[in-house]
TrEMBL record:
<feature type="transmembrane region" description="Helical">
    <location>
        <begin position="124"/>
        <end position="145"/>
    </location>
</feature>
<keyword id="KW-0812">Transmembrane</keyword>
<feature type="transmembrane region" description="Helical">
    <location>
        <begin position="40"/>
        <end position="62"/>
    </location>
</feature>
<keyword id="KW-0997">Cell inner membrane</keyword>
<dbReference type="GO" id="GO:0015740">
    <property type="term" value="P:C4-dicarboxylate transport"/>
</dbReference>
<dbReference type="InterPro" id="IPR055348">
    <property type="entry name" value="DctQ"/>
</dbReference>
<dbReference type="GO" id="GO:0005886">
    <property type="term" value="C:plasma membrane"/>
</dbReference>
<keyword id="KW-0472">Membrane</keyword>
<dbReference type="InterPro" id="IPR007387">
    <property type="entry name" value="TRAP_DctQ"/>
</dbReference>
<protein>
    <recommendedName>
        <fullName>Tripartite ATP-independent periplasmic transporters DctQ component domain-containing protein</fullName>
    </recommendedName>
</protein>
<keyword id="KW-1133">Transmembrane helix</keyword>
<dbReference type="GO" id="GO:0022857">
    <property type="term" value="F:transmembrane transporter activity"/>
</dbReference>
<keyword id="KW-0813">Transport</keyword>
<feature type="transmembrane region" description="Helical">
    <location>
        <begin position="12"/>
        <end position="34"/>
    </location>
</feature>
<comment type="similarity">
    <text>Belongs to the TRAP transporter small permease family.</text>
</comment>
<feature type="transmembrane region" description="Helical">
    <location>
        <begin position="83"/>
        <end position="104"/>
    </location>
</feature>
<dbReference type="Pfam" id="PF04290">
    <property type="entry name" value="DctQ"/>
</dbReference>
Amino acid sequence: MEKKLVRILETICGAFLVAMVALLFAQVGTRYILQGSLLWAGEIAVWFFVWITYLGAVILYINKKHIIVDILTTFLPEKVNKTIEMISSVIILIFLLIVFKESIPVVISYSKQTATSIALSKKYLFSSLTVSTGLMILYTIYSFIRKLRRR
C-alpha cells in the first residue's frame, strides 16, 4: 500500500514540478521576448512549490527518510527499540493531530481571500498543510496497527 501511495504522490509532485517550470518559462518568455508579463504565472508557480514541499514531506515520512537521532537506539536491545518506536509513533500522531486541527481554521480564514493576480481562493494554497498532515496521520495509524499486529 505504501508503494502505491508514494507512487501517486510522486506523480502529483512531478506534474506540479513540470507545470511550475513551464509557467516560469512562460513568464520569462513573455517578459523578455514579448515585453509583456504573466503576473499570475509566478504566483501559481509558488503555489505548486508549496504543494510539492508538503506532499514531498509525506513521501519522506512514509519512506522514513526524515532526519532521526538514533544514537541511543543503536545501543539498546531490539525489544526496547520496538517499545520506543511505538511511543514515538504515539507522540508523532499527537503532534500531527494538533497541526491538522490548527490548520483547519487557517484554511477557513483564507477561503474568503483570493490570490493577488487571479480569482482563485487561497484555501487551495493553505489546504496543502491540512492535506499533508491528514495523509501522515492516516499513515501513522496504519503503520501503528501493522506494528501492533507483528508483536
